[in-house]
Amino acid sequence: MKRYSEYKDSGVQWIGEIPSHWKIGKLRSYLKLVSVKGHGDKSLLSVTRELGVIKRNVESKEENHNYIPEDLNGYKLVRKGQFVINKMKSWQGSYGVSDIDGIVSPAYYVCDLNSKCKDFFSIALRSMSYVPFFSQYSKGIRVDQWDLSVIGLKSIPYFEPTLAEQQSVVEYLKVKTSKIEQYVTERERERAA
User: Can you name the residues that pair with 109 across neighbouring β-strands?
Assistant: First the structure.
């Protein structure tokens, strides 16, 4: 892990100190809420804490606990590269940058993302360090009914390394993830043999 010569307080107890050259901002500077409807013919998407934005399997009885209307024209359009949040489950980590086009429930937030390195933004916000921010800014009577308000979303802090550092993190994780996936595939092949 790279060590820096100077650090500053992040202002958040569980984050601690960060390199002094990192920018500290709020998500309001990176996200712009959008709501484009009328594309009911597009693939239905869902947002999970494990995988982020995925294509929803509308045929599966196990996956579809929520009612899906016949007319999906009221659902929100999602374009590749947009940040999508299940506002009722954001406190669990159900959000991410979409790799695919489609539509989501009108109860979700869809945001244009102002970030030069969208992969890093997604990795950072989906990390275990960020989930508590979404919990902190979600409110409700019961935990399983907490809701993230627009004001809460825009108030969440964001710590931004330099673009070169962001790209370095993304490349490092791609290499490591690829090695892990290769290892898992090899072990599964050995077990099947």
Answer: 85
Confidence (pTM): 0.85
Cα–Cα distance, 93 to 64 (Å, whole number): 19
Q: Contact at 8 Å (CB) between 44 and 56?
A: yes
Which CATH architecture describes the domain 26-116+128-160?
Alpha-Beta Complex (3.90)
Please tell me what DSSP assigns to residue 7: E
For the chain, the structural domain boundaries read 26-116+128-160, 161-193
Q: In whole angstroms, what is the distance from residue 91 CA to residue 80 CA?
A: 23
Element containing residue 121 per DSSP (H, E): helix 118-125
Burial class (CB in 10 A: 0-12, 13-18, 19+), 164: exposed
pLDDT per residue of the chain (193 residues) written in tens, 0 to 9: 567 789 999 999 888 999 999 999 999 999 999 999 999 999 999 998 888 899 987 665 555 556 677 888 999 999 999 999 999 888 888 999 999 999 999 989 999 999 999 999 999 999 888 888 988 888 887 777 788 989 999 999 999 999 999 999 999 999 999 999 999 999 999 988 7
**How many other C-beta atoms lie within 10 A of the C-beta of residue 80?**
12
Q: Minimal CA–CA distance to 93: which of 48, 57, 54, 31?
A: 48
**Do residues 182 and 123 lie in contact, with contact meaning Cβ atoms separated by under 8 Å?**
no
- Whole-angstrom distance, CA of residue 112 vs CA of residue 77: 11
